[in-house]
Amino acid sequence: LSTRQKFVTPRGVLAFSDHLYELDKKFDKNAEKYKGVIKLAKGDEAVDAFITKALKIHQDAGGSLDEGPFRDGDKTKSDYDNGCWVFTAKTKQQLWGDRKQIVDSRRSPIEGRLQSGDVVKFSVTIEACDIAKYKGAVAYLNAVQVLERGGGANDFDDEEGGYEEDGNSGAASEGARDF
Length: 179
Prior knowledge:
Strands 1, 2, 3, 4, 5, 6, 7 and 8 form an eight-stranded mixed beta sheet that branches. Helices cover 9% and strands 32% of the residues. It is mostly beta strands.
């Protein structure tokens, strides 16, 4: 593997969707980066293949498993991450608006904000990095493809007599898919 490779992640669940639209200033108040976070199910053949290739770039550059853009969800503080790899990629560019790098399954630009729980794929470039404070891989977010809206919240059955946003007591509307 070279030290810089472009990948399309397997399908996963978008987490922390606001980070796609707001600059990530958690650790650096002057940061000019947006980030995407995707949870990838462990045990999925495509996920395991992607993680193996990406971790090879990371480890070949001197990275350890407790740092970098990949987190083992079974070892994080959050129970919500169990059974997943949590993968983070950053970009200096806005992916929405004129850039049109947030697309649907047919690669047509999507208007409106994505939500945590949407099922997505990321186009990323993973590059080896060897600077004084950090050795390992960095992941750059190129684009996001949305496969399902609200996919992480679709585990519920329709609830008769429950709250409905549009007041329609008929079939579930597209907005109702969020719950």
